[in-house]
Input
Amino acid sequence: MSITRYLLASDLDGTLIPLERDAQRLREVAELVDAFEASEELMLAYVTGRHLSLAQEGIEEIGLPSPDWFVCDVGTSVYRRTGGGYEPDPEYRQAMRALFGGLAGDEVRAAIGAMDGLELQEEEKQAEFKVSYYTRGRPEPFVETVQARLDAAHARVNLVVSHDPVSGRGLLDVLPASVAKDYAVRYLHDCSGVDEEHLVYAGDSGNDRAAMLTGYRVIVVGNADEALKKDLGIESVAQGIAERIYFAEQHYARGVLEGLRHFGALP
Ligand SMILES: [Mg+2]
Output
């Protein structure tokens, strides 16, 4: 009898990693881990904005198992499990460089150069194919100049801006053109070899949206943003994929477990 293999590709913060760290939440994580361990068929990938070392720290802290893949830095890096640890996937790096217009992050950084009010984020927030800045005030006024300098260097990018209302600072991420979590999830689909209907993506917030509308099976955990739930409800009907999206009642790890059972990935 052949076994049906599933891949769970899941966001970490707010999905598998609860935002509240109380004993009850940790027990729920342990419950999910037990279910993972009882299954031979389920492969695991964590898809996160975090850098690899911080992602590893995060899963160790709450006792999540080591995955088959880590997708880090908002989808710009993929690490495969090797004997003892994780190695950057060489094919994925090549793809990122090509999408960046043939450049790596340090070259993109050099092309942008110095600008009043634009400051590089801490080193642990930088990645080979992701350059992250803080801006003084809102980030939008910086975009045109940054884009012009990148165009001059023939870089191809996806500029992602956000604004932190608490600090008043802006955030500007420079990613390879068209790359975000959804790009990486498609790549995982290819290298895992699972059928499309056996890839389950779980998430909770706006940066999971594109990956949730790619056509895979999707778990929206119960604690997800209300605006995201509403938007996914409308968009999935418009795209004819409503039955592929499961809105879990339970929060965090419990919601993921509920969804995996719904899709038949776990008994
Ligand atoms: Mg999240």
Q: What stands out?
A: DSSP finds nine helices and twelve strands in the chain. The two ends are 17 Å apart (CA to CA).
